[in-house]
Design a protein that fits this description.
202 residues, 4 strands, globular
């Protein structure tokens, strides 16, 4: 049993609790703000996915209309995806040939899109918050390459401005998330990744 359109209409969290189901589909309406507020859309995917998984339910994200959204949903833990970047609606007799021909190699550890890198950064930032009370562990964690670093390692993805903001953000992260400077640089990094993704889409 799959609950459709989680997050809109009658498909509420209450229904997910009341009706035993095997899967939920996160409504594409929650992703419509991605172009204007990508972080908000990614936060919805992350939290709804974690909630469903904690309830033992698999997650399909609807409305995946470009490779960046597919990659970000995978990095944030979604099990399945649906959208025009995967396939348009088609007659049943075409499904088997589409299935044999279509592929999109995704490595959640090495994002190829700026939106995937942004999803990875949001997870990195969340883990950093959990290490607030362990300064030594936080310092070791900050030294490790993040998914944004791995995104920039791909051929043709080098961006001196993004690299500079990332480096400054990591240095200031040692002060902790309550640092005003970290909050400012965090926002700059998010805005730069968002702008880069919009360029990739066009």
């Amino acid at each position: 049993i799959e609950q459709d359109d989680l997050g809109s209409g009658y498909s509420s969290l209450l229904r997910m609790d009341q009706v035993p189901c095997d899967r939920v589909k996160i409504d594409q309406a929650l992703l419509r703000s991605t172009l204007n507020r990508p972080v908000r859309a990614l936060v919805f995917i992350y939290h709804l996915t974690m909630l469903a998984h904690d309830c033992g339910v698999q997650v399909t994200v609807e409305g995946l209309d470009d490779d960046g959204l597919i990659e970000a949903a995978a990095i944030l833990g979604a099990d399945h995806g649906q959208g025009y970047a995967i396939a348009p609606p088609m007659p049943v007799q075409e499904v088997m040939s589409w299935n044999q021909a279509w592929s999109l190699p995704i490595d959640p550890e090495r994002p190829r899109t700026a939106l995937g890198a942004l999803a990875g950064y949001l997870l990195w930032d969340r883990k950093l918050a959990m290490l607030t009370d362990s300064p030594d562990r936080a310092a070791d964690f900050i030294k490790e390459p993040s998914l944004v670093h791995r995104y920039l390692d791909h051929p043709g993805k080098s961006d001196s401005n993004l690299s500079m903001i990332l480096e400054r953000t990591q240095i200031v992260a040692l002060r902790g998330q309550k640092s005003l400077k970290y909050a400012q640089l965090r926002q700059e990094l998010i805005e730069q990744l968002s702008a880069t993704w919009l360029q990739e889409r066009s």
